[in-house]
Design goal:
The chain is built from 16 helices and eleven strands. By secondary structure, it is an alpha/beta fold. The chain has an eight-stranded parallel β-barrel, surrounded by seven helices. Strands 1-2-3 form a three-stranded antiparallel beta sheet, with no helix packed on it. Bound molecules: iron/sulfur cluster (SF4) (2 copies). One iron/sulfur cluster binds next to α13.
């Protein structure tokens, strides 16, 4: 195996990589359900192009060229992993000041000193806080800002728009989007109607709702770039086994091939995870395994929140139920103890999980039939 000029392993010539791709093919053949090559009947084949020699596409009307898998920094605190991802060709990289207690943006800052011109830089920040972030990132410009917002009220805020326009006029940012955990078709349609946002970072925790997928399709038609998050197996930052690789490859393929995402924003916190995603890119996101995906989806029933939004505003005590369940997931599945505690501490005082009166209303309407009372209690025990 050779090394490139930066001293990293040259994965393009790696025997291990060939074996890994061989594994994806072999697994597919054994299960008799695979399709290698562009996803059959999808928009992927027509749109396919390359970015840095990897499968790529254009991020909607932003015109930015990106790879089909992007680097999510929520698990990242090591500059070396990001250096390697960029040098291997991954184009869009994303971080937030809150990730890893500030260590993620710090690591990104070290990398941006020499790699800024190689990437599309996306930051989870509001425009009024952008200067602070740019300083940490050792750059004077972010291509995209994506603050978290989950309601029509939030995305319609004229002050936010004004602040963004000021930052854009000052040459500090190119495009505005938002990160959304609530799969509400009405919210997505409102985004399209506003015509202001160019990008959405959307939770794909549940792809079983046709109304949600159709709303995403309307966004794509309107030229809005879609970044998919949270649609992959949990704990994918740890050393993945073969089953996890096959499942992850298939889910990535479906997100870009069937469910309208331009790119999958994968949380990459280790060299092993990076290698897995690089291998998946090398298969041109052509590995499809519906059986494995279906089993995975079934395993989420009763265990994981779909972020469908059905319980929003339902609790008589005013609890942000799905948010609290998500913070519990950050703690339990991603191992992000501090980040989860910080998020939990920011829920309105008097509205944390300890104020649940166990009326059971939320459980009756929960799409995934989650034991929410028990999960909320556990969230409070872990995060308070
Ligand atoms: S069970 Fe608790 S969280 Fe659910 S609706 Fe009732 S008070 Fe709210
Ligand atoms: S807790 Fe249940 S109803 Fe609420 S967002 Fe999650 S899956 Fe949907």
């Amino acid at each position: 195996m050779s090394e490139n000029r930066n001293g990293y392993r040259d994965y393009h010539n790696s025997t291990k990589l060939v074996n890994r791709r061989g594994f994806l093919k072999t697994t597919a053949a054994a299960l008799g359900v695979a399709a290698m090559g562009a996803y059959p009947g999808s928009a992927l084949a027509a749109e396919e192009s390359t970015a840095n020699g990897l499968p790529g596409t254009v991020l909607g009307r932003t015109g930015l060229k990106i790879t089909r898998i992007s680097f999510g920094g929520i698990l990242s605190s090591e500059p070396s992993v990001l250096f390697r991802a960029i040098d291997q060709g991954i184009r869009l990289v994303h971080t937030s000041p809150g990730y890893q207690n500030g260590r993620s943006i710090e690591a990104f800052g070290k990398v941006m000193k020499t790699r800024r011109d190689k990437v599309v830089l996306a930051v989870k920040v509001r425009p009024e806080k952008l200067d602070e972030c740019l300083e940490k990132l050792n750059t004077d410009y972010a291509d995209i800002i994506i603050p978290p917002m989950d309601s029509i009220q939030e995305i319609s805020d004229p002050v936010l728009r004004e602040n963004f326009e000021k930052a854009k006029a000052a040459g500090k940012v190119g495009h505005m989007g938002f990160a959304c955990h609530t799969q509400s078709p009405a919210l997505l349609d409102k985004m399209r109607e506003l015509g202001f946002y160019d990008i959405i970072l959307m939770s794909y925790s549940d792809t079983g709702n046709p109304a949600f997928i159709d709303a995403l399709g309307r966004l794509r038609e309107a030229g809005i770039g879609i970044l998919a998050m949270k649609g992959l197996p949990k704990r994918s930052s740890l050393k993945p086994d073969e089953k996890e690789i096959a499942l992850t490859a298939s889910l990535c393929t479906s997100m870009v091939g069937k469910y309208n995402a331009n790119t999958v924003l994968a949380s990459i916190g280790s060299f092993q995870a990076l290698e897995m995603y690089y291998d998946i890119l090398e298969t041109k996101l052509g590995y499809s395994n519906p059986v494995l995906e279906e089993r995975y989806r079934a395993s989420l029933e009763g265990n994981y929140c779909a972020m469908c939004g059905n319980c929003t505003g339902l609790c008589p005590q005013g609890l942000q139920i799905s948010n609290i369940i998500r913070f519990r997931m950050y703690r339990q599945d991603y191992g992000l103890a501090e980040y989860a505690k910080t998020k939990y501490a920011a829920v309105s005082p008097g509205c944390d999980a300890s104020s649940c009166r166990e009326c059971g209303l939320c459980e009756i309407s929960c799409t995934r039939k989650l034991p929410l009372r028990q999960m909320l209690k556990e969230a409070h025990r872990l995060l308070a």
